[in-house]
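FW: tagging you since you asked about this chain on Friday. Here's the raw sequence from the shared folder, copied in full. Didn't touch anything.
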Amino acid sequence: MNIYVGNLPYSLDDDQLRELFAQEGQVRSARVIKDRETGNSRGFGFVDMPSQEEGEAAISRLNGYSLGGRKLTVNEAKPREGGGPGRGGDRSGRPPRPRNY
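HL: got it, structure written out here
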């Protein structure tokens, strides 16, 4: 089960996130998402737990849990939608304009 964890303290790392969820069961992976340019945490991450039951237990126990003075948002991760900007263009999602050479 893939789990979204939001409102993480910016000082939290992958190992600490794994330890938090390991209290509820086996953790396949835990990853805090970082900004590509700065390497700083973006304040959210994902945890993958092989058992649906353990994942659901972790969600119910940790959603709203106070960690580092912040209340965590924990729920089942939704699959990414295909839209949004890709390579090229600007952040508006529009394709790049053709160049006149």
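FW: The domain at 8-42+55-76 is CATH 3.30.70.330 (Alpha-Beta Plaits).
HL: agreed, and The CA atoms of residues 27 and 49 lie 5 Å apart.
FW: great, closing this out.
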